[in-house]
Amino acid sequence: QVQLVESGGGLVQTGGSLRLSCAAPRNIFSNYVMGWYRQAPGKQRELVAAITSGTTTNYADSVKGRFTISRDSVKNTVYLQMNSLKPEDTAVYYCSAHRTIPRVEAYWGQGTQVTVSS
User: Which of 25, 36, 19, 112 is nearest to 77 (CA)?
Assistant: First the structure.
């Protein structure tokens, strides 16, 4: 059973900042694309940001310039720094690890709530 352990969610006012953390087992962290997804009530889960083991990053258009994904290879942890938060960022945020080679595999964290008040 692969465990991705998330932390850092909470309640913040518009314009504020939060940092999410996700710790993964070393073999997962080193070989999978790590990412953050979010799901707001009544909406589909969507990709927020992802980072490869080579530190290539990808962001949803809605968070570009405000969110930064990074990884610490010593702590086997991926971070999501969220700045200039907006009410529409309110969602449950999920850490993910996935790969397609040699086979499709995906793992998810338990989710952490982020609420941005207006």
Answer: 25
Element (H, E) at 27: helix 26-31
Q: Confirm if 69 and 78 have CB atoms less than 8 A apart.
A: yes
For 11, 55, 89, the CA distances from 42, given in Å and listed in that order, are 20, 32, 14
38-86 confidence digits (pLDDT tens): 999 999 999 999 999 888 999 999 999 999 999 999 999 999 999 999 9
107 and 1 Cβ atoms separated by less than 8 Å: no
* 99 touches 2 (CB < 8 A): no
Token pair of 62 as six digits: 């809605």
